Amino acid sequence: MHGPASPGWLLVALCAATGAYCLLRMRSRVEEQRRAAGGEALMGFGMAVMAVPATVFTPPGWAWPLYAAVFGAAALRALWSARSSPHHLHHLVGAAAMVYMAVAMAAAPGARHHGGAGVPLVTGPLLLYFTGYVLVSGARLVPVAVAAGAGALRWGDRPELARACRLSMGIGMVAMLLAL
After folding, report:
1. Alpha-carbon Rg for the chain in angstroms
2. Closest alpha carbon to 2 in 107, 130, 114
3. Cα dihedral sign for 166, 141, 17, 3?
4. Which of 57, 102, 122, 150 has the fewest C-beta atoms under 10 angstroms from its C-beta?
5. Using the 8-state DSSP alphabet, how is residue 6 labeled?
6. Whole-structure pTM value
């Protein structure tokens, strides 16, 4: 997952900024938005930590199983929440992808941070899903951003920023899967 330092730091910045905005969205007055923002903040910060270039920080061996456990719990929570909102199915796929990447990194200690750690039969469908998600999210973002000029909304309640947040995490996931 860790390639050259410059793109790695850009990915860290993108994911950390997304996680920070998702924390801000947790202050929304809408309960469903707060709940979704919490999972997205966890995903953003988790992706940021996972994307830190290996030349700066190489996680200890116990970190990958811990990652898998945390995101496995997030996947179970998303599965439970999907009963009431289909949007949580995307959270389920994202958390499952994080578990997959953590397991792939733990299973290939010699290949850690140098690519070749993933199973193509799993990486391929995940790449297709997240690439499709990025394309659809980008297309859906344009009309929302144009219409968002009306009314004063709180920062945590702006739909165009929430979609941009999800779009940036999708882009980050594609980058991380490509580097796996």
Report:
1. 16
2. 114
3. positive
4. 150
5. H
6. 0.82
Q: How many helices (H) and strands (E) does the chain have?
A: 6, 0
CA-based torsion, 15, 78, 75, 38: positive or negative: positive
Integer Cα distance of 8 and 2 in angstroms:
6
Burial of 115 (0-12, 13-18, 19+ CB in 10 A): middle
Highest mean pLDDT range out of 24-28, 101-105, 157-161, 169-173?
169-173
Share of the chain above pLDDT 70, in %: 83
- Rounded CA-CA distance 55/30 in Å is 42
Pairwise CA distance, residues 23 & 69, whole Å:
22
